[in-house]
Automatic annotation (TrEMBL):
Keywords: Aminoacyl-tRNA synthetase, ATP-binding, Ligase, Mitochondrion, Nucleotide-binding, Protein biosynthesis, Transit peptide
Purpose: Catalyzes the attachment of tyrosine to tRNA(Tyr) in a two-step reaction: tyrosine is first activated by ATP to form Tyr-AMP and then transferred to the acceptor end of tRNA(Tyr).
Protein name, per record: Tyrosine--tRNA ligase
Major site of localization recorded for this protein: mitochondrion
Reaction(s) the record says it catalyses: tRNA(Tyr) + L-tyrosine + ATP = L-tyrosyl-tRNA(Tyr) + AMP + diphosphate + H(+)
PANTHER family: TYROSINE--TRNA LIGASE, MITOCHONDRIAL, TYROSYL-TRNA SYNTHETASE
InterPro entries the UniProt entry points to: aa-tRNA-synth_I_CS, aa-tRNA-synth_Ic, Rossmann-like_a/b/a_fold, S4_RNA-bd_sf, Tyr-tRNA-ligase, Tyr-tRNA-ligase_bac-type, Tyr-tRNA-ligase_bac_1
Subunit structure: Homodimer.
Record-level Gene Ontology MF annotations: ATP binding; RNA binding; tyrosine-tRNA ligase activity
SUPFAM superfamilies named in the record: Alpha-L RNA-binding motif (SSF55174), Nucleotidylyl transferase (SSF52374)
Enzyme class: ligase
Pfam families on file: tRNA-synt_1b (PF00579)
Gene this protein is translated from: LOC108041078
C-alpha cells in the first residue's frame, strides 16, 4: 500500500506525482461501494454490464451543455466518472451541446433558461472543450502511472451535437424519429411534471430537449458503438427517453444508463453553487487557491464522502486516512489530501504549487511567499480587490501609503484604525503611522504591496 502524506503545505521537491498514481478499478460497478453510481438501468442489467466491462473495451459518454464559459465543481463528478471509465480501459466520450445548448435542459430547474446567442454558445463551447482536455491531461500526467498499467489510456473523444443536427431536415427528423416517442412517457418524466405544475409552466422548446438528447445517444451508438450513457441523477428521465428510442429503432442493440448522485452540501444546496457563487474550474474565474480552499474547508461530516467521489484513493486507504483524521481532526489531514488531489486534477502541478504558495503566504504570515506570487496570481487570489498604481517616493510613510491607496475616507479614520491595529501591509499588522516604507518588507521584490483594512478589504498596490 502506498504511504499517505499528511503534511500541510509540504514542498514540491519530491513531486506530487509520487504516491498519487493508484491502480485502476476494472469493474466499474464496484464504484458503487464509493457511493458513485446511484442507479443503473435497466434495473436487471447489472450482470450484463459487469460482463461487458470486464470482457472488452466499451464507449461511454456524458454530455455538457455550454450554459456558461466554464464548467463548475458540480460537473466534476461526471468528469470523474468518465476518467474512471478511461482508467478501466474504456473509451470516454464527452458530448458538448452546441445544438442542445440553444434549447436548454429543463432538468432540475424551476424556470426556463435564458436563451443564449450562437456566438455566446460558440465561445462557451471552446472554453469547455479546453477545460475537459486539460483535466484529462492533468490526470494522465499527475495521477496515472503508465508503468503499473499494461495498456495506454484511451484518448478522450469530444463531439459536438451541432455537427449532426446541421445536416438534418426538420420534417424528415419529425417524420422518421418523432413516431418513436410516446407522449405519455415524455409527460411522465419528473423534470416535465414539476415544470407543468409550476406557475410559468413549460415551453415546447424545453419539452423537446429529451428528444434531442435521446437522438444524441442513438447517433453515438451508430457512429461510435456507444452503448453507455452517464449522467447525474437529474438526467434519469432524459437517459430513459434515449433508452426507449434505441430499443425501438435498433431492436437488436442493448444500451445502458448509469446515473451519478447529485452532490449537495449539508444544507441541501447544490455542491459548489450555493448562494449563486459557483466554484468554477476555470482558473481565471475561481483561482487554484480558491478551489484548494473550498475543499480544504469541507466539514468533517462531508470529507469521507468527497474523498470517495472526487479522488482515486483506494477505499482501504480512505478508511486508514479517516482513522488518522479522527485521532487529530484539528490537522485536517483528510481535507488537505482532498484539496490537493482535486486541485492537482483541475489545475495540474503548477496550479497546486500556486495554491500552496498563496496559502503559505496568507496563513503563515510569510512575506517571502507573497513575494513569489506574480501580479496575476495576486489578482486571482484577491478577486474584487482594488488595484492602485503608485509611484515610489523616498520617505513615504504608512499613513501616506494608506491615504494614497484610498484605503480610508479621511485621515482621521486612517489614524484611528491604524493605531487600533486594523491595517495590514503584506499580511503583517502595522500600527505606527510614521513608519517609513522599506523595500523587501513593505514593497515586495515583485513590485507589489498587499494592503488590508480589517478582515476582508484588500488593496493591491502596483509600484511604478
Amino acid at each position: 500500500m502506498l504511504p499517505l502524506r499528511w503534511s500541510l503545505l509540504k514542498p514540491l521537491q519530491d513531486g506530487y506525482r509520487q504516491g498519487r498514481r493508484y491502480l485502476a478499478q476494472k469493474n466499474l460497478l464496484e464504484l458503487t461501494d464509493r457511493g458513485f453510481f446511484q442507479g443503473i438501468f435497466p434495473d436487471t442489467a447489472a450482470p450484463k454490464i459487469k460482463q461487458l466491462f470486464i470482457t472488452g473495451q466499451q464507449s461511454i459518454y456524458a454530455g455538457f451543455d455550454p450554459t456558461a464559459d466554464s464548467l463548475h465543481v458540480g460537473n466534476l463528478l461526471v468528469i470523474m466518472g468518465l476518467i474512471h471509465c478511461q482508467r478501466a480501459g474504456h473509451r470516454p466520450i464527452a458530448l458538448v451541446g452546441g445544438a442542445t445548448g440553444l434549447i436548454g435542459d429543463p432538468s432540475g430547474r424551476r424556470t426556463e433558461r435564458n436563451q443564449l446567442g450562437e456566438s455566446v454558445i460558440e465561445t462557451n463551447l471552446r472554453a469547455i472543450e479546453q477545460q475537459l482536455r486539460q483535466v484529462f491531461e492533468n490526470h494522465e500526467k499527475c495521477l496515472w502511472d503508465t508503468n503499473k498499467h499494461k495498456s495506454p489510456l484511451a484518448p478522450l473523444t469530444i463531439v459536438n451535437n451541432a455537427d449532426w443536427y446541421a445536416d438534418l431536415q426538420l420534417i424528415d427528423f419529425v417524420a422518421n424519429m418523432g413516431r418513436h416517442f410516446r407522449m405519455g412517457s415524455m409527460l411522465s418524466r419528473s423534470s416535465v411534471q414539476s415544470r407543468l405544475e409550476s406557475e410559468d409552466g413549460m415551453s415546447f422548446t424545453e419539452f423537446t430537449y429529451q428528444i434531442f438528447q435521446a437522438y444524441d445517444w442513438l447517433h453515438l451508438l451508430r457512429r461510435h458503438n456507444c452503448c453507455f450513457q452517464m449522467g447525474g441523477s437529474d438526467q434519469t428521465g432524459n437517459l430513459m427517453t434515449g433508452h426507449e428510442l434505441i430499443s425501438r429503432v435498433e431492436r437488436k442493440r442493448e444500451v445502458f444508463g448509469l446515473t451519478l448522485p447529485l452532490v449537495t452540501t449539508e444544507e441541501g444546496d447544490k455542491f459548489g453553487k450555493s448562494a449563486g457563487n459557483a466554484v468554477w474550474l476555470d482558473g481565471n474565474k475561481t483561482s487554484p487557491f480558491a478551489l484548494y480552499q473550498f475543499f480544504l474547508r469541507m466539514p468533517d461530516s462531508e470529507v469521507e464522502k468527497l474523498l470517495k467521489l472526487f479522488t482515486f484513493i483506494p477505499l482501504p486507504q480512505v478508511e486508514q486516512l479517516m482513522k488518522e483524521h479522527a485521532r487529530e481532526p484539528e490537522k485536517r489531514k483528510a481535507q488537505t489530501l482532498l484539496a490537493e488531489d482535486v486541485t492537482l486534477l483541475v489545475h495540474g502541478e503548477n496550479g497546486l504549487k500556486q495554491a500552496e504558495r498563496v496559502t503559505n503566504a496568507l496563513y503563515k504570515g510569510n512575506v517571502e511567499g507573497l513575494a513569489e506570487l506574480n501580479l496575476a496570481e495576486i489578482q486571482q487570489t484577491f478577486q474584487g480587490a482594488t488595484m492602485v498604481d503608485m509611484l515610489t517616493e523616498p520617505g513615504m510613510s504608512i499613513l501616506q501609503l494608506a491615504m494614497k491607496a484610498k484605503c480610508f475616507p479621511t485621515e482621521t479614520d486612517a489614524v484611528r484604525i491604524i493605531n487600533a491595529g486594523g491595517f495590514y501591509v503584506n499580511q503583517k499588522r502595522v500600527q505606527n503611522i510614521a513608519e517609513v516604507l522599506t523595500t523587501g518588507i513593505h514593497i515586495l521584490r515583485n513590485g507589489v504591496s498587499l494592503l488590508r483594512v480589517g478582515k476582508r478589504n484588500f488593496y493591491i498596490v502596483r509600484w511604478q
